[in-house]
Amino acid sequence: MAPKILIVDDEPHIRLLMEQTLEDLEDRGVELLTAADGPAALEIIEAQKPEVVFLDIMLPLLSGFEVCRKVKQELGLSDVYIIMLTAKGQEYDRRRGTEVGADVYMTKPFDPDEILEKTAELLGIDL
Question: Which pTM was predicted?
Answer without folding.
Answer: 0.95
